Amino acid sequence: MAIAADYTEKIPNNVDLHEDRRLQRALESWQPNFLSWWDSMGPALPTRDVYLRTAVNVGREGWAHFGYVAMRDYRWGIFLADRKPDRRIAFGRHKGEPVWQQVPGEYRADLQRLIVIQGDTEPASVEQQRHLGATAPSLYDLRNLFQVNVEEGRHLWAMVYLLHAYFGREGREEAELLLHRNSGSEESPRILGAFNEETPDWLSFFMFTYFTDRDGKYQLGTLKESAFDPLSRTCEFMLKEESHHMFVGTTGIDRVVQRTVQLMLEHDTDDVVAHGGIPLDIIQKYLNFHFSVSLDLFGSETSTNVANYFTAGLKGRWAEERRRDDHVLTDDSIMVDAIVDGKPGQTEVAALVGLNTDLRREYIGDCQNGVNRWNRILEEAGIDRRLRLPHVAFNRKVGAFAGIEATPDGEVLSADEWERRKGEWLPTEVDRTHVRSLMQPVYERGKVAAWLAPPRQGINGKPTDYEYVHLA
Ligand SMILES: [Fe+2]
Ligand SMILES: [Fe+2]
C-alpha cells in the first residue's frame, strides 16, 4: 500500500495532500511561520550546506537520502508509515475492534492534548541546541547536531499535520501555539520541564540525546500503539529517525569516556582537568542530572488520566503486542515508587493507574545499556571506577520523590544537608566552567577537539574526515 512520496509539491508527503485542497492550503500557510521560527530559533551558526539525510519516503530504500542541503531548504515533509491492512486495536476497552481512521468525538480532547504535548517537545530541543554550532568539536559532530535539528523540525511537522488534518480550528490554533511557546521563555515556556533547561555545551548535548531523546522514543512507542491509526503510523516513522539521535548520544559519551581514560592512563591521575579532559566525576554528575530530569518526563507514578487513555485505546504500553497478559489490565496490580516510612520504597496499586511507572521502568532498563557500554570502556582500560545510574529518588521534581532529597544511593537527606552536599552529585559552577572552557570550535576538516576521541566511523559510509559541513 505504499504511496509514492510527492516531491513536486511544496510540502513533500505520502498522504495525498493534493487531494485535500483545504488542508494543503492550511499547511502551506503554516509553512512560512515554521520557516521564520527556524530562522530565529533554529541553528544560529551560518552554513552554506550540510551533508544531511532527508526522508523522501517510508519504504526500506526511500526513507534516507543523503546529500548536501542548505538547511533552510531541507524538505520537511509529512510521512506516515504504510497502513497495515486490517489493523486492530491491541488493548483496552476496544481491543479487537478495527483501528480508527478518524478521531472519535468522545476522545477528541484527549487525543489533541497528547499530540500537542508530543509536538511541543520537538521544536523545544531545536531551541535548546541553537547555539551549539558555535562550539562544535568537529565537522562530523556539527553535521550530527544539524541532522538531529532538522529531524526534530520534521517531527514538529508530523504533529502539526495531525492537528490540521483531524482537529479542525482548534487543531490549527494549537499548531500556531507550538511555534509561539519557546524553551526557557518566561511568558510562554515549553510544556515540560526538561525542555526548558539549557543545553549549554556538548557534554550536555550528548547526555540530552542519550537520556532525553530516549524518553521521546518511549513516548512515541506508546503512541505508536494508538487506536487512532494516523497517529500510530506517524509515530512509527518518527521512531526510525529517533534512533539516530540516540546513536549521537551513545557514541558521543563513548568518545568522551574514551578520551578521559586515555588521559588518565597517560598521566596516571583521575584528575584530567589540567590535561584538557573531562574527569569521570564530572561525567557522572552530568549523567545524574540528565537522567533525573528525564525521569520526571514520565509524570507521577500513578495517573488516572493515563489509565483512561489506555482503556480508551489512545496510548498503549511499550511493546504492547509482545506483552503476555490480557491487554486490558482491569484485574492486575503493579508495585510503584512511593515514600514508605519516610524513605523511598514501593507500594502496590492497580496496574492501570501505574502505567507511567511501567513505562519509566522500561526506559530505565534501556538507559542501563549505555552505562554498561561505557563501563566496558573503563574495564578494558583496567580502570576500577564505574559510572552508574543514580537512584530513582535522586533529584526528582515530579512524582512521589519530589518532596524529598536523596543521594544517588537513595538515602534521604535533610534540606540543609542536600544544599550543602548536592555539588558532590550535580554539576557545580566550577564543573560547568571547566566543561565550557573546553568548548572551542574545531571546524577544520578531519580534526577533532582534544576532550573527546575521534568518531570510529563516518556517516553513510563516508570517511570520518569528510567535509560534512560547508560553513558560510
Ligand atoms: Fe523527535
Ligand atoms: Fe529526537
From TrEMBL:
UniProt cross-references to InterPro entries, sorted A to Z: Aromatic_CoA_ox/epox, Benzoyl_CoA_Oase_BoxB, Ferritin-like_SF, RNR-like
Domain of life: Bacteria
SUPFAM superfamilies given in the database record: Ferritin-like
PANTHER family, sorted: 1,2-PHENYLACETYL-COA EPOXIDASE, SUBUNIT C, PHENYLACETIC ACID DEGRADATION PROTEIN PAA
Entry protein name: Benzoyl-CoA 2,3-epoxidase subunit BoxB
Organism: Actinomadura keratinilytica
Gene that produces this protein: boxB
